[in-house]
Specification:
Structural class: alpha+beta
CATH topology of the domain at 76-213: Rossmann fold
Strand order of the largest sheet: 3-2-1-4-11-12
Radius of gyration: 26 Å
CATH architecture of the domain at 76-213: 3-Layer(aba) Sandwich
Strand content: 25-35%
Largest sheet: 6 strands, mixed
Distance between the termini: 44 Å
Shape: globular
C-alpha cells in the first residue's frame, strides 16, 4: 500500500493506493499544527480502504510548513557568520529593482537582524587563503552565538565553495560546543559561486530547519502511534527524502507541496496524453503552474519566494495568488480585483458557513451554478448559497453591477491571473502553449480549465479522475532523489572528458549513503565567455566535450535566436541527482453504473444555459458534449458549449475544443 498526504493552504489531501484501487480523503487544513489534519486524513483514508497503518508500505508527505514560515517570517532566531566586511550581503543584495521607476520600493527585511551578523577574521580568495583563520576565532564566534540566545546559525564565508577549510572549522566547532544549535554551512548547502545567492540560500536553510525538524518530529511520533512507517518528505526538486534528512535541510523543502503536484502532472501526462502538458494546480489559496515535456517536469536552479532568493534544484513552478479562496475586492480606482489575499482554511469562503464574509472565487462559482448548492463539497463542507450571494452582493453594490455580473467578473479576473502565470512559464520562455494539453487539478482547477485553455489557444484539456487530490497521488509515485551541485568553471583545454568525468565522480561520492539502486542524472550549466547566466544541457556522466558544446549552442539558438560559432564555451556548474525510481501506480477508470445524471442552470459567459450534470466517477469510454458539469469526488470539471469529452481507461476526462 502506498500513502501520499499533501497539505495545502485550505485542504489536506490523502491518497491510498492498494495496487488496484485509489482511495481518497480531503479534510480542512489545521494551520496551527499541520500534522493534526495529516493524521486525520490518513485515518479517514485507511477507514475507507478498511486497512490499518501497519499495512502501509510507504508514506510520502508534501507540506507547506517551510513555505508558510518563510512568507510569514516565522522562522527561528538565526545568526549569520560571514567574512569580515561582508556581513551585510543580505542587506545589499543584487541592487535589482522589480519596478524600474520605483527607486525606493520596499523589499523584505533580512531574515538575520543586524545585531546577529557576526564577522570572522579570515579571507579566502579564488587562488587560496589570503588571511588564515586565527587560533581562537571559532571560540570567539561560538561565544557570540551563545550570548545571543540563537537557535540556528548560517556560516557563509567568501570562496568557501572552492576552499571550505575555514568554514568547516567554524561549523565543526559550533556543532561540538553548542550541540543544541543548528548549523547550516554554505559549502554543504550550496557549493556554488555568486555570494549573495549562496548566503541567502544558506540563511533560509538555517532559518527553517529547526522549525521543520520539530514539525516532522511530531508527525513521526503520530505516524508511529498509528502504525505507519516514518514519513518521506517531498523536496523542492521533485524527489523524496527521509524525514531525518529533510529536517536537517529546510531550504530543500520550501516547495514541497507544489513539487508533489508537478510530479502528479508528469504521471498523468504520460498515462493519458503524449507526455506534453501544462500543469494547472488551483487549490484554495493559490495556483501553481508548470511545464511537463515528454513526461518530465521542467526544473530550475533558482527562484524567489517572498522576495528572497533560493538557489537550489527545484521543479520549475510559478505561483500566483488565485485560488478558490482568493478574495474579490474593489481597488481605489474602482476596478474589480481578485487576490492575492485569501480566506484560507479558517474561516474560508463565505459559502462555507464558518464566519467568512468576503466574496471569493468559490462563492462566485456557487452563485453561477458551477457548484451545486445542494451538494457537499469534498472535505465535508456544506455550501451555503445565501451566504455566498450576500458576500457577492455587497461587492456588486460597491461596483455598481448586478450579482451575476460581479460573480462572472470575479471568475474572469481570476482566470486572467492564471493565464498570465501560464504565459510566464511558456511564452516568456520561448514555449508555444498551443503544442501542449492543459492538465488542471486541485479542487478548483478543472472548473476554470476550459476558459483558460481557450484564452491560450489550447485545444485539449486532461482532467484526471482524482484531480482534486493529484498532488497526493503524485507523492505516491515519486522517485527517491538526492541532489547536489558544484561550480567548476572549465573552458578551453581544461574542459576535457577526463576532467569532467572526475568532477562528476566526486559529486557522486559526495552524496554518500545508499546509492546502489540509483541512476545518475547530470545537467551541465554552460555559457559563452563573458555572459552572466547559464543554460542547462542534460548529459551523461562521461560526456564528449565537443558534443556538450554543440548542444549548448543549439539550446542558446533556441532560447535567444542565435549562436556564436567563434565564442568560447564555459562549463560553469555541474548539477547531479542520484535517482531511485518510485512506484508507478496503475490508474483505472471507475466501473459503469455509478454515475448519476441530471441538469441545472449554469451561467457560462454572459448567459444562463441548461447544462447536463454528471455526478460521480465516470466510467471508461463515456462521452459528453458541453454544456456539461462533471461533479467528481474531489473536484468539478466544467465543459462549456463547443467542447467534447471522452473518458479514457485511466479515468481521465479528455476534452477537446471543436475547431
Amino acid at each position: 500500500m502506498l500513502l501520499g498526504v499533501d497539505v495545502g493552504g485550505t485542504f489536506t489531501d490523502a491518497v491510498l493506493f492498494d495496487g488496484e484501487r485509489v482511495y481518497t480523503a480531503k479534510l480542512p487544513t489545521t494551520p496551527e499544527d499541520q500534522s493534526l489534519a495529516v493524521i486525520a486524513a490518513v485515518e479517514e483514508v485507511l477507514r475507507l480502504a478498511e486497512a490499518t497503518g501497519s499495512e502501509v508500505e510507504s508514506f510520502a508527505h508534501g507540506m507547506t510548513v517551510g513555505t508558510n514560515a518563510l512568507l510569514e517570517e516565522r522562522g527561528v532566531r538565526t545568526a549569520l557568520i560571514a567574512t569580515h566586511g561582508f556581513a551585510d550581503v543580505l542587506e545589499i543584495g543584487r541592487q535589482a529593482r522589480p519596478h524600474l521607476y520605483r527607486l525606493c520600493g520596499p523589499k523584505p527585511a533580512p531574515l538575520v537582524e543586524a545585531g546577529l551578523r557576526f564577522e570572522a577574521e579570515e579571507r579566502v580568495g579564488p587562488e587560496g587563503v589570503i588571511e588564515p583563520l586565527p587560533e581562537g576565532e571559532p571560540e570567539r564566534l561560538a561565544s557570540l552565538v551563545r550570548d545571543g540566545e540563537i537557535e540556528s546559525v548560517a556560516v557563509c564565508l567568501l570562496f568557501s565553495y572552492l576552499d571550505p577549510s575555514h568554514e568547516r572549522r567554524i561549523a565543526e566547532h559550533l556543532r561540538r560546543e553548542l550541540p543544541g544549535l543548528h548549523v547550516s554551512a554554505s559549502h554543504e548547502v550550496l557549493p556554488r559561486f555568486r555570494e549573495y545567492e549562496r548566503t541567502s540560500t544558506t540563511v533560509i536553510d538555517a532559518y527553517l530547519s529547526p522549525l521543520l525538524g520539530r514539525y516532522l518530529g511530531r508527525l513521526g511520533e503520530a505516524a508511529a502511534a498509528t502504525g505507519l512507517p516514518q514519513p518521506q518528505v517531498m523536496r523542492s526538486s521533485g524527489g523524496l527524502a527521509g524525514a531525518g534528512e529533510a529536517a536537517g535541510a529546510g531550504a530543500w523543502s520550501v516547495l514541497s507541496g507544489p513539487a508533489g503536484g508537478a510530479v502528479g502532472a508528469g504521471l498523468l501526462a504520460r498515462v493519458s496524453g503524449d507526455g506534453n502538458a501544462l500543469g494547472l494546480d488551483m487549490g484554495g489559496t493559490s495556483c501553481d503552474v508548470c511545464v511537463v515535456e515528454e513526461g518530465e517536469v521542467r526544473r530550475t536552479e533558482s527562484r524567489e519566494i517572498g522576495g528572497r532568493v533560493i538557489q537550489l534544484p527545484m521543479v520549475d513552478v510559478h505561483t500566483v495568488g488565485a485560488g478558490g479562496g482568493s478574495i474579490g475586492w474593489r481597488d481605489e480606482g474602482g476596478a474589480l480585483r481578485v487576490g492575492p489575499r485569501s480566506a484560507g482554511a479558517d474561516p474560508g469562503p463565505a459559502c462555507y458557513g464558518r464566519g467568512g464574509a468576503e466574496p471569493t472565487v468559490t462563492d462566485a462559482n456557487l452563485v453561477l451554478g458551477r457548484l451545486d448548492s445542494g451538494s457537499e463539497l469534498a472535505g465535508g463542507v456544506d455550501l451555503d448559497v445565501d451566504a455566498a450571494r450576500g458576500a457577492i452582493g455587497a461587492l456588486a453594490a460597491a461596483l455598481g453591477m448586478d450579482e451575476a455580473q460581479t460573480a462572472e467578473g470575479i471568475v474572469r479576473v481570476a482566470n486572467q491571473e492564471m493565464v498570465r502565470a501560464l504565459r510566464v512559464v511558456t511564452v516568456e520562455r520561448g514555449v508555444d502553449p498551443r503544442g501542449f494539453a492543459l492538465l488542471p487539478f486541485g479542487g478548483a482547477g478543472p472548473m476554470h480549465a476550459a476558459d483558460i485553455a481557450a484564452e491560450l489557444g489550447i485545444e485539449r484539456v486532461l482532467c484526471p479522475r482524482a484531480g482534486g487530490v493529484l498532488s497526493a497521488l503524485g507523492l505516491c509515485a515519486s522517485d527517491r532523489r538526492r541532489d547536489t551541485t558544484r561550480t567548476v568553471m572549465l573552458s578551453g583545454a581544461e574542459m576535457n572528458a577526463e576532467r569532467i568525468s572526475a568532477e562528476v565522480e566526486e559529486l557522486i561520492a559526495s552524496l554518500g549513503g545508499d546509492t546502489d539502486d540509483a541512476e545518475p542524472e547530470v545537467v551541465y550549466e554552460m555559457r559563452y565567455a563573458g555572459q552572466a547566466f547559464e543554460l542547462p544541457v542534460p548529459g551523461s556522466t562521461r560526456p564528449d566535450p565537443a558534443d556538450l558544446a554543440e548542444r549548448f549552442a543549439a539550446a542558446h539558438e533556441e532560447r535567444y535566436g542565435h549562436r556564436d560559432s567563434d565564442g568560447e564555451v564555459v562549463l560553469v556548474h555541474i548539477r547531479l541527482a542520484m535517482v531511485s525510481p518510485g512506484p508507478r501506480p496503475r490508474l483505472v477508470a471507475a466501473e459503469a453504473g455509478a454515475l448519476e445524471e441530471s441538469t441545472r442552470e449554469v451561467r457560462l459567459g454572459d448567459e444562463w444555459v441548461e447544462a447536463a450534470v454528471l455526478h460521480g466517477e465516470p466510467p471508461a469510454d463515456l462521452r459528453a458534449s458541453g454544456p456539461a458539469v462533471f461533479e467528481l469526488p474531489e473536484a468539478t470539471f466544467v465543459l462549456p458549449l463547443g467542447w467534447h469529452a471522452e473518458v479514457d481507461a485511466a479515468g481521465t476526462i479528455c476534452a477537446e475544443r471543436a475547431r
